[in-house]
Amino acid sequence: MGPVARIVRWALATWFRLNGWTVEGQAPASRKFVVIAAPHTSNWDFVYFVGGAGALDLNLSFMGKASLFRWPFGGMMRDLGGVSVDRAASKDMVGAMAAEFARRDEFMLTIAPEGTRGRAGEWKSGFYWIALKAGVPMVCGMMDYGRKVVSLGRAIMPTGDYEADMAVLREIYSGCTPKHPQGATY
């Protein structure tokens, strides 16, 4: 990890602690999984989630649009765990991310299924299909503003029954308080 990425991680972890946030839970023993980062209603979610990941000693990865990986920020974005995605050219994001899981010994891919900070209507399903195709569990990651807690909870293997698995996830996330509750989608 480069010096700028180390400074950014340190600053976010410090901000996390100074603002009274704590962590709960732990990562599964396997270091390959999809982290569901929800709810996602504010840009602050990223700050607190990265701070919590540092406290849990996790090297999380995330997908980002290709333009974020150009100079002068490209190296830092990769050092922070970013995986460049060309959304215009990519037709099989699920397959590309499943291949990334197969290629690496450790890959903890964080995805915000709401896909936006505004009210999305429903979660995008890519996180689910990536986990299913890669044969890895989905780990429930939450930013609970009501308790000032970032938690890494239950690991769920996708069964292939999307609706049934989503019902389980909705129940897990139902007690979590987002920064902007009116923007949450479960």
Give structural attributes.
globular, 186 residues, 6 helices, single chain, alpha/beta, 7-stranded mixed beta sheet
* Biggest sheet, spatial arrangement of strands: 1-7-6-2-5-3-4
Oligomer: single chain
State Rg. Answer: 16 Å
The count of DSSP E runs of length 2 or more, i.e. the number of strands, is: 7
pLDDT averaged residue by residue: 87
Low-confidence runs of at least 5 consecutive residues: none
Portion of residues within helices: 25-40%
Number of helices: 6
Tell me, briefly, the overall form.
Answer: globular
The percentage of residues in β strands lies in 15-25%
How would you characterize the largest beta sheet? 7 strands, mixed
Number of structurally distinct domains:
1
| Helix and strand composition category | alpha/beta
Task: Name the helix and strand elements from N-terminus to C-terminus, one letter apiece.
Answer: HEEHEHEHEHEEH
Cα(first) to Cα(last) distance is: 35 Å
Task: Walk me through the structure.
By secondary structure, the protein is of the alpha/beta class. The protein has one domain. It has six helices and seven strands; from the N terminus they run H-E-E-H-E-H-E-H-E-H-E-E-H. A seven-stranded mixed beta sheet has the order 1-7-6-2-5-3-4, with helices on both faces.
